Amino acid sequence: MLDRVKVLSSFCLLAASATPLTAQTIALGPADGRDLPAADTGRVRVGDAAPDFTLESMRGGTVTLSNLRGKKNVVLVFYRGHW
Amino acid sequence: MDEARKRDVELLTVSIDDRALLQKMVDQISRDSVRADFTFLSDPGHKVIDRYGILNPRDRRGLPHPTMLVIDKNGVVRWKFIEVDYKVRPTNEMILAALARLAEAPR
Which one of A40, A67, A78, B18 is most buried, by most CB atoms within 10 A? Predict the structure, then answer.
């Protein structure tokens, strides 16, 4: 019984410590990625808001992801570049 | 994919290539008489790649792990695939299925 309480309380502790971490992950940090590790493949998860960006387009001008809100679904592909 | 659904989807591709390199690739694709229906975007300083956390730390050029995301009209990620092992790749069918699920269950 005591063991079970121990397990339960350690689980609660774990859950409590996990909560602020989750909130932090949802906030997703600064827009330009500063102060965030560049290699963290688990950061952007299904259900998260996709981090916004503005990038130069090959056709000239720029594309801002959030400008497509309410208009289009987006397939966003990152690839290794020229082949 | 039917035309109506195609109009509903924007295909954005991101690499660290500058515009000249991107143009070279588009020329190459059109020589193969395939029309490139994507918007090619340039992230030369890999800022957006870093932002998404998908920089390949083993590559000094700043290349990303090849990654695909399906983002709905609310800007929410609904499907994601990161290729850390080049032998495991998403198929076109997987991406189309993710898009079809968006059409079925709009949020």
Answer: A78
Residue B50 exposed, middle or buried by CB count within 10 Å (0-12, 13-18, 19+): buried
Distance CA(A66)–CA(B62), nearest Å, equals: 25
Q: Which of residues 39-78 of B touch A (CB under 8 A)?
A: 39-43, 46-57, 63-78
Token pair 């909560």 is found at A19
Burial call A38-57: b when 16+ CB within 10 Å, e when fewer: bbebebbeeebebbebebbb
Helix (H) or strand (E) holding B40: strand B39-42
Kindly determine whether residue B76 and residue A68, on different chains, have CB atoms separated by under 8 Å.
no
B contact residues 12-41, partner A, Cβ 8 Å cutoff: 12-17, 19, 21-26, 38-41
Read off the pLDDT of residues A40-56 as tens digits, 9 standing for 90 and up: 999 999 999 999 999 99
